[in-house]
Specification:
The chain has 459 residues and is an alpha/beta fold. It is 33% helix and 21% strand. It contains 14 helices and 19 strands. The N and C termini lie far apart (78 Å). The model has no long low-confidence stretch (mean pLDDT 95).
Length: 459
């Protein structure tokens, strides 16, 4: 039985950075993946959806190219070709991960890992999609083990699984679009795919049981997104009600997007004494440690913020801790990005969260319609917003909705993590003409001193 210092189970955005970081620190490392390198994010999530959304966005911009004096008549979409582009991107990135793991000396196993005990794993041929080529059981030992097995879509038991009722993974495997689609669930995955399909001409309806879509956002941000989706994309949004039989039957396709659940099947966690909570997630402390001293859990499987970039950060921290470095707690400031039309991004506290904590807050908002770069580019939807502590003016949170919001949020993340104040952001010179000037303008707006906005009306 081959022994390793660290074995990582799962080669997604939490797993492969864990393995590489541990190898960089001198550990003998192995990684076990039962499907494909890159996990859900690369193969059936973040990357393929963004490849499709990029194509849909380009097609949408072509429809409005005449405002720039560019006339493109008869533009059409070959969705199968767009899917081929998506698959090419995925294949290239997957190969890159394999090269990175090999280059760092990480031994790779393909198969289903399960615990024999807290230090011993058995690897069986994977039965999922016939990816694995292993023909016999393998046992390996490890001083430390990092779980990074991710999550999968929840599909309510009352819904059948067939070619017409699908979750996001099955949707992304399709090479043709339906003429009409009902999306069950108004979270970020459902809304992203709804916008993509609508931009490509699909008649889309979103049905959300809760009072609104994208409830993680402040009300003003939600309104901006929803208005654009309904008015400009023609999406029908029904909130505060369950999916009715008639709605499901009327659409050519039903996309189910109501949440995620941890992937722990086949691991036999009980053999190692690893506990799960009532939802099946593996609880961890702020350093990624489970209730078993030598076993860590990172990413979606631990039930914390379910975002690929958070999984990667957690993976690196867990690897460093497992390798004996001074423990560093998981980062708590995690930006979120949503590739709807328009894009949305947020970081830190929302205005609603801050007020629920009984904080006195100041806010500053600046709309892209007042920005030279946005007007020149013909992209004026939306705004950026700062949320700051009223007493100290330290930045607590930020939101962006509109063009390039998913890129713009990086500046806000760094500013909040660096504990900057509104005044410090306002004094920082931002290059002109750029979209990033909006943060400076919004900082000035906190005090009503924004140069490119009309003065506030006196009460």
């Amino acid at each position: 039985m081959e022994m390793f210092d660290i074995v990582v189970i799962g080669a997604g955005p939490g797993g492969y950075p864990s393995a590489i970081r541990a190898a960089q620190l001198g550990a003998k490392v192995a990684i076990v993946e039962r499907e494909q390198l890159g996990g859900t994010c690369l193969n059936w999530g973040c990357i393929p959806t963004k490849a499709l959304i990029a194509g849909a966005d380009l097609f949408g911009r072509i429809q409005h190219a005449s405002q720039f004096g560019i006339n493109i008549a008869g533009a059409t979409v070959d969705y199968a070709a767009l899917c081929a582009h998506k698959n090419k991107v995925v294949t290239q990135l997957r190969a890159g991960i394999g090269q990175l793991l090999t280059g760092h000396g990480v031994k790779q196993f393909t198969g289903q890992a399960s615990f024999i005990d807290r230090h011993t794993l058995e690897i069986a041929p994977s039965k999922i999609n016939s990816v694995a080529r292993a023909t016999e059981l393998i046992r390996i030992g490890a001083q430390k083990i990092i779980l990074a097995t991710g999550s999968t879509s929840v599909v309510p038991g009352f819904l059948p699984r067939n070619d017409r009722i699908v979750e996001s993974r099955a949707f992304l495997d399709r090479t043709s679009l339906p003429s009409s689609m009902t999306v069950m669930g108004g979270g970020y995955i459902g809304c992203e795919l709804a916008c993509m399909a609508a931009l490509l001409g699909v008649k889309v309806t979103i049905v959300e049981l809760l009072d609104d879509i994208l409830l993680l956002l402040d009300a003003d941000v939600r309104r901006e997104v929803r208005h654009h989706m309904e008015k400009n994309l023609g999406i029908t949004i029904r909130t505060g009600k369950p999916l009715e039989k008639e709605e499901a039957e009327a659409a050519e396709l039903v996309l189910v997007s109501v949440g995620r659940q941890p992937v722990t099947d086949g691991l036999k966690l009980e053999n190692a004494g690893v506990k799960t909570n009532d939802r099946g997630f593996v609880p961890v402390d702020d350093f990624g440690r489970t209730n078993v001293a030598n076993i860590f859990a990172v990413g979606d499987v631990n039930g914390r913020t379910q975002l690929a970039h958070n999984a990667s950060s957690q993976g690196v921290i867990a690897a460093e801790t497992a390798c004996g470095q001074r423990p560093r707690a998981y980062e708590t400031l995690v930006p979120g990005v949503i590739f709807t039309a328009p894009e949305v991004a947020l970081v830190g506290l929302t205005e609603e969260e801050a007020r629920k904590q009984n904080r006195a807050v100041l806010t500053g908002k600046f709309r892209f319609a007042g920005l030279g770069r946005a007007l020149a580019a013909g992209e004026t939807t939306g705004f950026v917003k700062w949320i700051a502590d009223a007493a100290t003016e330290q930045l607590l949170g930020a939101a962006a909705v509109g063009p390039h919001a998913t890129e713009l949020i990086a500046e806000a993340t760094l500013a909040i993590r660096s504990e900057l104040t509104v005044a410090e952001v306002g004094r920082a010179i931002h290059a002109h003409p750029t979209f990033s000037e909006s943060w400076m303008e919004a900082a000035h707006a906190v005090h009503g001193t924004c140069i490119h906005a009309l003065p506030r009306r006196k009460k």
